[in-house]
Design goal:
Length: 89
Amino acid sequence: MENFINQENLEDIRELIESKIADIPGNYILFGAIGSLLLSSYLTKIGKTQAGSVIGKLAIPIIGIGLAKYKDVLKTELENQLDLKPDTL
């Protein structure tokens, strides 16, 4: 079986993921992470521990995606604010 993730196509994979999540609002990403944690807790409580574990582990990558998106938003807002401020001595 061929390894699909290698150095040659790693940049293409990153660009594909970024293009797919570019239009998703940050609130939806946050709600998805919180929802997966709540669903995981519920599944564990009713006795479906394996399913709860799998769903709970999805929260970490979702939060990582949200943080990356939030970092980009902060960076662009900071750049915009620095461009709008007049130069003072």
